[in-house]
Specification:
Layout lengths: L1 H25 L5 H17 L38 H33 L1 E5 L2 E5 L6 E3 L2 E4 L7 H15 L4
Parallel strand pairs: 2-4
Antiparallel strand pairs: 1-2, 3-4
């Protein structure tokens, strides 16, 4: 378990360095496809780089010696010893709980969106599905454009539909 914590710490450091590089060097560029590809490569690098090992200091095996000391017990033998929880177990538990909560939140969000889509009025407009429901804010969800109301004569709505149709076309959600 200790190696898992070390891996997560190293991956987090790599990810932080990559994201700082992106924020200060690439975030202002308007090459969105390249930026998206760079972000995916950075994520991959952050996951793989901690798995690699580098020898920074050459240690000679002859310099290291192992000494075995005899075992001895000081004091009384206590039968009722309490189990202590290590910091590694706490970190692993917090990580797993966080991952589980995030997964459940994502899953519930998906099902709530599906339920609202089931209640929405669907209209086919310019080769796109428009889902109309008063609880929607303008957004795209897979192949649907979500709107609280629909009036294609309004210039603002035409611009929103054009914007969201690009998200649908590029498969953003």
């Amino acid at each position: 378990m200790n190696s898992l914590v070390v891996y997560l710490i190293e991956a987090s450091i790599c990810l932080a360095v990559c994201l700082l590089f992106y924020k200060y060097v690439l975030s202002e560029l308007t090459f969105f496809k390249i930026n998206r590809a760079v972000l995916l490569v950075m994520l991959l690098i952050s996951g793989v780089f901690p798995l690699l090992s580098f020898e920074l200091i050459k240690v000679n095996a002859a310099d290291l010696q192992e000494i075995a000391l005899p075992e001895f017990i000081v004091g009384q033998n206590i039968e009722n010893t309490q189990k202590t929880i290590s910091i590694i177990e706490i970190i692993n538990s917090v990580y797993l709980i966080g991952a589980l909560v995030t997964f459940i939140h994502l899953l519930l969000g998906y099902f709530v969106s599906q339920r609202l889509l089931g209640k929405a009025q669907l209209i086919k407009y310019q080769n796109h599905w428009i889902a109309i429901h008063p609880k929607f804010i303008p957004a795209s969800f897979f192949e649907y454009i979500l709107l609280p109301d629909f009036n294609p004569d309004k210039p603002e709505q035409r611009q929103i539909i054009l914007h969201e149709s690009m998200h649908v076309q590029l498969k953003h959600s």
